[in-house]
Amino acid sequence: MDKDSIESVVIYKFVANAINHYHDSLILSKNQINKFVIKWNNSYPVGPYKYIPEFTLTVKMINGNSRYFRIAGATIKERIDFGFQFICGDDLFESIWNKK
Fold it and tell me: Using one digit for the tens of pLDDT, what is the confidence trace for 42-95?
């Protein structure tokens, strides 16, 4: 993923007992987007992985397309159940959310 092709990134907290399952959102700063891109580009596959997401990300691209990610801890998935993990088990999204 190229950081220069991203317009914005919104993170949503997943709440299983909420009516619409999402409680709150946060728009990532340019610095946070850069960290996400670096970690995504350096993540490694962990195979098929089932979990209830803690967060979801909507990545809006400059060309008008959007990408959607589901996150649990340091594991992230895009459209399918094949997961990727950030190096060193980094918990980037939990730390972003807790700082808001």
Answer: 999 998 988 888 899 999 999 999 999 999 888 899 988 899 988 766 678 888
Closest CA to 4 of 53, 27, 37, 28: 37
- Rounded CA separation 56/54 (Å): 7
What domains appear along the chain, each with residue ranges and CATH number? 3-99 (3.30.1490.410)
Residues 6+ apart with CB under 8 A from 17: none
Global confidence as pTM: 0.83
Residues 6+ apart with CB under 8 A from 61: 5, 6, 7, 67
